[in-house]
Hints:
Blueprint: H1 17-34, H2 58-79, H3 81-94, H4 114-132, H5 147-158, E1 164-171, E2 180-185, E3 202-203, E4 206-208, E5 214-220, E6 237-241, E7 251-255, H6 273-313, H7 320-323, H8 326-337, E8 343-345, E9 351-353, H9 356-361
Helix pairs in contact: 2-3
Amino acid sequence: MSGDVTILGPDAKPLSPAVRAAARVQVAKNRLMASSAYQGASYDHPSFAKWRPGTWSGQSALTWSRAELVDRLNDVARNDGWGAAGTSRLVDNIIGSGWTLAARPNHVSLNMTFEQAEEIADKIEALWRDYTQDVDKWCDAERTKTMAGVLGLAARQRFGPEGEAFGVIVWQDNAPLFQTAIHVVDPARCSNPNGRMDEEFLRDGVAIDGYGAPVGYHFRKSHPGEFFAGNTGLWHWEYVDRETEWGRPIVVHAYEQKRAGMTRGVSDWAPVMRSIKQSTDYEDYESQARTGRLSLPQVASRRVLRRQYRPLALGVCRAGDRMGPPDRRARLRAEARRHDARRFRLGSGHAIDQTVDRLRGL
């Protein structure tokens, strides 16, 4: 029986060689058209077959994923030693013990001599030191940090899980020397009022103009994860202008715009989140596996000892000469009764008798 396959046409006769050649050419054309000029846009490779990321703008992609992404990154910063250490080291390199002001007034534009500009610069730097290193911490609206602490907290948010930092410049009338203070605001508090969808001039809590420039911010009066009795700020928002009518900044928003039109920042950790999670899980599994391999021999040996000594301690064996003196038998029975109260458990649920070694030495 021949292994060739014969294809019949509508007239029940084999196709002519010319028709078969034309069909092969058409199949080749179809395959060529199905493929893409760029391999990265094709779907015939197994790695690309189910890869359909969708068309997202920079801000729309972040809006729908920001809450979950930031929560996971904050969990890494809290519980992963490498992640926390990386952020701390970065903040130390950027902020250190604080920033030192190097005033350089332009004596030409100010119409003064170079010596006069140097004298004014010395005074400005001295006032900056008084303001930023005040022991009463009036530069911080919360009065818990000096300027180095304010900058460190803002840098931790900007280069950490949030990928951005907010600072509201407030005016304190009761301050003794400088009335200007900075209030660092958690980025999670900036959101659309009452959970509204994004609008043409409102994007993820940021009010914008026709060019996309921010003109104001909506801040929730309480952090969305802050729960305490009588907290009414969870569902109340406050609108804060970006600047005053005469141009004095009110809200400072530090972030890197990774794509055009983005109004919020995203952490640089986002692209490596999967690798961070996988490496952490691998370390946990490897540690558990090693612990199990080390503990199983001890479990087996202690169980054997328990089967050997516990019947003696409970008096199952009636050979009095092998039990030893009565006081020794009493001690063995007492140890056996305290047996259940002195167990500890491994992660796999195995119970280990801590009194076996004591019984073994009696």
